[in-house]
Amino acid sequence: MADPEGPGAGRGRALPGFESPAAGTEAPLEMLAACHGRIERHLDLIERLAGHLARAGADASARDAAAQLLRYFGTAVPLHHADEEQDLFPALHEAVAGSDAVCLRALTEGLATQHRRLDAAWEALRPVLRRLADGAPFDAAADWPADAAAAFLAANHEHLAREDGELLPMAARLLDAAALAAIGRAMRERRGIPAV
């Protein structure tokens, strides 16, 4: 299967086998944006996995991809949502007043609601990917939840577009260095990363 990082990147790597450089917690907005890029690549992996299953069945590459997706969406994405809901959203609320605060609250509440919907949509895929990763008998035509996968992909793409188009640019305009440093500290603590 093609490497999700693009032509020539990571030659010889099969599904999933990719990692990308990441911004660190000292630049929390860049780290959130980099995470969005990794989410997009994992969404692409879901699409490619469906095609791979149809062509090659539940082979070792498919099992590895399923395991990669379980790790990423089971660990990194919940941390990312916590970064936004527990640190970024409150910092933004502290930075604005008046009618801007009302608009911001509508945005952050809408995004938090989308997080819950994304979590629920993930739960429709997770058990199927677990079976696949564990090597259980798997019939791609009968067992792959195409509608649930399509709904998960569409909801994520819509959500990421809103965060990249509205939330992160707003945060870059409104948050000062002290607020960004506090967000970065909280991100490190959440992940058990020593202070820089």
From TrEMBL:
Residues 28-171 form the Hemerythrin-like domain. Signal peptide: none annotated. Pfam families: Hemerythrin. Residues 1-21 are annotated as: Disordered. CDD domains: Hr-like. Gene3D superfamilies: nmb1532 protein domain like. This is Chromosome segregation ATPases.
